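step: validate -> pass
step: tokenize input -> pass
step: predict -> running
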Amino acid sequence: MDKGRLAVRAGVRDGAIAVGVAVTLLITGLSGQHTAENLDLLGYALLAAGGLALAARRRAPVPVLAVTGLCAVGYQAVGFDVPAVAYLFAVYAAVREGRRTITVAASVMVLAFLPLAALASGLHDTSEAFAQARSALEIAWLVAAGAAGEALRQAERRADEAERTREETARRRADEERLHIARELHDSLTHQISVIKVQSEAAVHVARKRGEQVPEALLAIREAGREAARELRATLEALRDDDTTPPHGLDHIPELVERAGRTGLEATLTIEGRRHEVPAAVGRTAYRIVQESLTNVARHAAATTASVRIDYRPDSLALQVDDDGRATPDIASEPGIGLLGMRERVTALGGHLRAAPRREGGFTVQAELPVERVS
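step: predict -> pass
step: emit ->
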């Protein structure tokens, strides 16, 4: 929206400059002396056209350069001794857009044709014609216009390069900080959680071997240790996952479904539509949605079956994960961190996410991710 507003402002400014130059040229033409009265209207038309053409100097700098140059030669030929101000503006705009070679060639041609135009007007002899051409388009002003355009072009290019450098630096620092957090979590938590998990597993094993009743608290500690280890691995994996390493994507979803099936859950995967390549960000998000959904089914749903459906559409990728757990529309559920994370990922890609209990019982997660076809 900001770029659009700036473009509108630039267009208004260019239009105002074009009108101002056209009015200046017309006033100068009206105040001059010229004898070919039958060509006055043509001269005024060329003066106005040369100035008004500047309104398009940003969008079409080369055509504007040609039009203003032809107008300058034209109104000189019909007897209007008016400086080629519009052409100088066009030179500035063309050089600013990096069209140096064609600008130099066009300027040489204009400089060559202006004396001929002055001779054709019948107002001057040869020496006076060259003098008039020189006054109409001073070479010093021509060079100054080109130099100003080149200087501004270089300044804009340096500004763009500085902006890109800032973005790359910020992205690199974010990656370094993410890896630092991953290392800190690994060093500070992994060992302690592993100790808790191993000790609780050993205690449960010894109690059962002795035929003793395993305390509920000990079983809860063991389960919490397993869950904490899984969550920590997932967190570290997410922190270390960046755009420079091969990410998990759609090709890894069958592994998720197979892994869920090994936990006693009857999990199925259905793929519909004509498969096509999708951007890495879309594939990564799809993987995370299925991963988090199946994790929630195993942890909270008390379900026996879960189905994953992937639908390849021409302009989007649709996902749906259903289970037959205990969720019902009558029971309000508070969205957890996992669901919030899924929603943020989908929203960042411009997609839509629906996560809610099903009318027939159980829970459904539906996501639609827009894609641009990758050739």
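step: describe -> The mean pLDDT is 77.
step: cleanup -> pass
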